[in-house]
Design brief:
Mean pLDDT: 87
Strand content: 15-25%
Shape: elongated
């Protein structure tokens, strides 16, 4: 079940850590979505997946437009964005 809580709940850090252990917790401010609290392992998996998708998309584009770039420069630029 999706957890949506107001920002005032952030005062209870133990509860927030427990709630976010297995699923994201959506934090609202003034009734609107503001932040997402994630377990660090989930965050790292999402980050890796997004990096993989970005690499794949850029590779496809470089194959079609003929604009290949040095792999080391590409990775440095990508990781610094």
């Amino acid at each position: 079940m999706t957890q949506i809580v107001p920002i005032t709940e952030m005062r209870n850090t133990s509860k927030m850590f427990e709630m976010s252990e297995n699923q994201p917790v959506y934090i609202t401010k003034n009734g609107y979505g503001s932040r997402v609290l994630l377990n660090i392992e989930v965050y790292n998996k999402v980050k890796e997946l997004l990096l993989d998708l970005e690499l794949e998309e850029r590779y496809r584009r470089s194959e079609t437009d003929g604009k290949n770039e040095d792999a080391q420069e590409f990775l440095e630029r990508l990781l610094n964005e």
